C-alpha cells in the first residue's frame, strides 16, 4: 500500500510503538492524529512532533470512543487508517485477591478498546477506497506469559478477533493487518527488568519493530512478525510445553504461591 498522504489515527501515541509510528508516518507525508489518556504526555509529544494532532481519549471507555469519533470525523473526514496500539501490561498474581473491575482492566484496554474502535469507525472506513485497520498484538498471543495472565488472554483474544475481522471484511475496501510484536524495550516492559528469568537482551528496539511494520504495510502483508515473533509462532506449534515452561520461570520466586 501507499503510505503517503493518508490520514491516520493512532491510539496510545505518546510512547513506545505509538510514538514511533507517529514519527515515521509523519515523515512520509501523512496526517497523523494520536490519542492518549494523559494530557501532559500528549502536549509533550506534540512539542516533540509539532505536526502531530493530539486528542485526549481513553479506549477503555465507550463514551470516550464515541466522542473521539465525532471529533475526528468532523476535523479529519479523510481518515482512512486506524492503528489500534494502546495497551497495558501488568504483572499480576492470581493467588492474591483483586477487585473484579480492576482485574479485567487489560481486557478493557487491549481487547475491548480495539473492538469498540473498529465498531465505531467501521462505517466511515467503508466509504474510503483504500482503508486499513492495524491491530497490534503480541508474540504472547501464541504462548501464555504466566506473570501477566490477563495481558496474555487479551492479546490472544485480539489475535482471534483480528483474524475473524479480516475474513468478514475481505469483500470491502478495508485491509486488516496484525502486527505481532515481540518483546520490546518500551515502558510496557520496564516493570519486568528486575524479575528473575527476565532476559533484557532479547528485547527488540521499538523503532526496529515499527520499521518492520511499515515495510510490511508497504508490501501488503496481512500479518507482520518482527524479530523473535516469528520464532515464537513456530515454537508454539513445535514445542508448546517447553515454551510455557520457559515463560513460567519469570517471576517464579515471587509470583506463584499456594
Can you give a write-up of this model?
By secondary structure, this protein is of the alpha/beta class. The chain has one domain: NAD(P)-binding Rossmann-like Domain (Rossmann fold), CATH 3.40.50. Helix content is 45%, strand content 14%. A seven-stranded parallel β-sheet has the order 3-2-1-4-5-6-7, with helices on both faces. α3 packs parallel to α5 (105-125) and α5 runs parallel beside α6 (149-168). The protein is globular and about 50 Å long. The chain starts with 6 loop residues before the first strand and ends with a helix. The relative contact order is 0.14. The mean pLDDT is 88.
In a few lines, what is going on in this structure?
45% of the residues lie in helices and 14% in strands. It is of the alpha/beta class.
Fold topology:
Blueprint: E1 7-10, H1 16-27, E2 31-36, H2 39-48, E3 53-56, H3 62-75, E4 81-84, H4 100-103, H5 105-125, E5 131-138, H6 149-168, E6 174-181, H7 206-218, E7 223-224, H8 229-238, H9 240-247, H10 252-255
Parallel strand pairs: 1-2, 1-4, 2-3, 4-5, 5-6, 6-7
Named CATH architecture: 3-Layer(aba) Sandwich
As a whole number of angstroms, the C-alpha radius of gyration is 18 Å
- CATH topology (fold) name: Rossmann fold
Give the SSE string: EHEHEHEHHEHEHEHHH
Count of separate structural domains: 1
Strand portion, in percent? 5-15%
Summarize the biggest pleated sheet: 7 strands, parallel
Structural class: alpha/beta
Helical element count?
A: 10
Q: pLDDT under 50 segments (min length 5)?
A: none
What's the β-strand tally?
Answer: 7
Amino acid at each position: 500500500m501507499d503510505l503517503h498522504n493518508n490520514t491516520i489515527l493512532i491510539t496510545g501515541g505518546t510512547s513506545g510503538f505509538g510514538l514511533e509510528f507517529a514519527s515515521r508516518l509523519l515523515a512520509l507525508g501523512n496526517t497523523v492524529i494520536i490519542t492518549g489518556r494523559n494530557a501532559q504526555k500528549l502536549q509533550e509529544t506534540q512539542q516533540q512532533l509539532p505536526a502531530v494532532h493530539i486528542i485526549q481519549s481513553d479506549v477503555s471507555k465507550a463514551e470516550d470512543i464515541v466522542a473521539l469519533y465525532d471529533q475526528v470525523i468532523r476535523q479529519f473526514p479523510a481518515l482512512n487508517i486506524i492503528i489500534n496500539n494502546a495497551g497495558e501490561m501488568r504483572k499480576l498474581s492470581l493467588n492474591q485477591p483483586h477487585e473484579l473491575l480492576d482485574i479485567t482492566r487489560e481486557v478493557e484496554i487491549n481487547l475491548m478498546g480495539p473492538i469498540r474502535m473498529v465498531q465505531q469507525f467501521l462505517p466511515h472506513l467503508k466509504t474510503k477506497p483504500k482503508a486499513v485497520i492495524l491491530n497490534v498484538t503480541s508474540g504472547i498471543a501464541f504462548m501464555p506469559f504466566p506473570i501477566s495472565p490477563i495481558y496474555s488472554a487479551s492479546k490472544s483474544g485480539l489475535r482471534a478477533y483480528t483474524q475473524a475481522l479480516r475474513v468478514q471484511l475481505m469483500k470491502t475496501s478495508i485491509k486488516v493487518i496484525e502486527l505481532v510484536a515481540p518483546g520490546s524495550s518500551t515502558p510496557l516492559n520496564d516493570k519486568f527488568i528486575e524479575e528473575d528469568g527476565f532476559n533484557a537482551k532479547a528485547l527488540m528496539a521499538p523503532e526496529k519493530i515499527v520499521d518492520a511494520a511499515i515495510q510490511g504495510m508497504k508490501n501488503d502483508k496481512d500479518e507482520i512478525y518482527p524479530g523473535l515473533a516469528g520464532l515464537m509462532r513456530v515454537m508454539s506449534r513445535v514445542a508448546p510445553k517447553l515454551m510455557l515452561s520457559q515463560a513460567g520461570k519469570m517471576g517464579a520466586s515471587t509470583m506463584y504461591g499456594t
